C-alpha cells in the first residue's frame, strides 16, 4: 500500500553558496553508531571517508544497548531455529530471504568484533566459551553479552578504537546534518552544520560520490522512551524530504520494562533480566503474564508490552514491577551491575525490592526502505541500522537482532558503496548548484520546547502502545497545525532542526498507523484488534509526491 503523505517543504538553511565551505569525500557516512562505524571500516582504504555525527561518537542507541547481540554459537542451536524465532516474532511480515541472509552472517560478524578486541562475557569454567543468554522470543541460548548489561558500550569501545586507527577515516563530531544533496536524481552528499552544539555554527556542503545514512532511531518523539536525546528521527525526515521511499512507519517497538520512578531518567531494564528468570507482578503482587501468553515473561516484546498496559488499566496503576527476589542475589548483582547501580540511586535493592517498570518507545522498526545490500530508492544513497526498513524485523523485532542487523547491513552497504566509488569517474567532485524553498527567519514567539513537549505527550497518548482512529486523526490534525508554522522557519540551532524532524516523523507514524486497520506485532489498534492477513499482510509505503 502506498500512502501519499502531504508534501513537507524541503528544509535547507538559507545561504549564499559562495559563502559556505565545501568538503569532498569518496564516501560520506551520516551517523556514528555501530552501523555507521562498521560501514566506515569496510570502505576500501584507498578511499576517503567522512563520518559525521551530531553529538559525541559514543552518543548513539548502539552504545546504550544493554541486552546483547544474537548469534548462532551454541552447538545445540542452528540457523533454522534462529530464523524461525525471528519470523514468529515478526508478525508474519518478515522477509524470509532477508532474515536468512542476516542470521547466516551472524557468526562471522560477531567473530570480527572479537578480532577487533571486543571483550564478550565468557564462562568462568572455560574462558574459550562465550556465555550465552536467552531473551523473549528466543528458543535457544544465543545472546552474547559484555560486562553483564553493557554490551553496546563494549562493542562501541572496540569499534571506535579500530576506526580511530584507520588513516582514511575522519570522524566529525558535533555536526548536525540538515539535508541530503541531490543532483539529477542522485544523492551527492549532505548539508551539515558544524559546531551544532557549541553555538559557533558553520554550514558546510559535504560532496561525496556515495552516501551511507546510519542515523539511528526516533524514540525521542515519545514522552516515554529508552533512547538517548540524539534519537530524533533526523535520518528518516531528511530522507523523506529528499523523496526517498520509507515504509512501515507505524511499527515502533515499545520495550516492556523501562524504569519508572518520578524524577529518574527512563532507564532501560534489559530483557535479559526476564531471561534470567525475573517475574512481572502487578501492584497487587500478582504474577500476571500467564493470563496473556504461555511463554510468560519470555513472550516477545509486543505481547509483554501490551499485557503490561492492559494489567496497568485493570489495577488502575501507573506501572507494574519486576521481581528478582527469588533469584540468587550474588548472581543478580554480578550479571546486572549497571541496573543494580541505577536502581540503588533511588533506594532500591535489585535483589529484594520490586522494581517499578512500564513500556517505553525503544526501537523504530519502520524506516528507509533498503534492498538486500542496503540500497535505497535514491541512487548514490545507502542506509543501514535502525534508520532502515530491511525486512528483517517485520512487525516486531526479535530481541538482540538489532546490533546484528547494523553490522550486517553496515558491511554490505559499505562494500557496494565502496565498489561504486572506486569505479566513479568524477574523482574531482563537482560543486553543483543547489536550490532552496522560501524560508522565514525564526520567529522569537515560537516556543520550541513547548511544542516539542506537547508533541511527545500527544504521540505517547495517540501513537503509543494502544491506538485508535479517533486519537490518531486528532493527533494528525494537531501535528499539521504545528507544521504549518514550524516547518517554514529557518532555525539557527539544533533544537529547531530537531523539532522540524520530529514533527515530520511523528506525522508519518500517525498517518501510517491510521492507515493500517488491523493489529499486527507492535501495532495495536483497539478499534481493529484482530490481525487481517487477507487485507493487511503488506507494507505501507510512504512517498512524498513531487
How do you describe this structure in short?
By secondary structure, this protein is of the alpha/beta class.
Describe what this molecule looks like in 3D.
This protein is of the alpha/beta class and 546 residues long. The protein folds into two domains: 1-13 and 20-251 and 365-546, 3-Layer(bba) Sandwich (FAD/NAD(P)-binding domain), CATH 3.50.50.60; 257-360, Flavocytochrome C3, Chain A, domain 1. The protein is 33% helix and 18% strand. The strands form six sheets. Strands 2, 3, 7, 8, 9, 10 and 17 form a seven-stranded mixed sheet that branches. Helix 1 runs parallel beside helix 4 and helix 12 (469-486) packs antiparallel against helix 13. The longest helix has 22 residues, at 402-423. It is globular, with a radius of gyration of 22 Å.
Name of the CATH class of the largest domain: Alpha Beta
- Global geometry: globular
CATH architecture of the largest domain: 3-Layer(bba) Sandwich
The helix-and-strand class reads alpha/beta
Distance between the termini: 18 Å
For CATH, the homologous superfamily of the largest domain is named as: FAD/NAD(P)-binding domain
Portion in beta strands: 15-25%
In terms of quaternary structure, the protein is single chain
Give average pLDDT, whole number. 89
Largest sheet: 7 strands, mixed
Enter the CATH topology name of the largest domain.
FAD/NAD(P)-binding domain
Supply the number of structural domains.
2
User: Taking Cα atoms only, what radius of gyration do you get, to the nearest Å?
Assistant: 22 Å
The count of DSSP E runs of length 2 or more, i.e. the number of strands, is 23
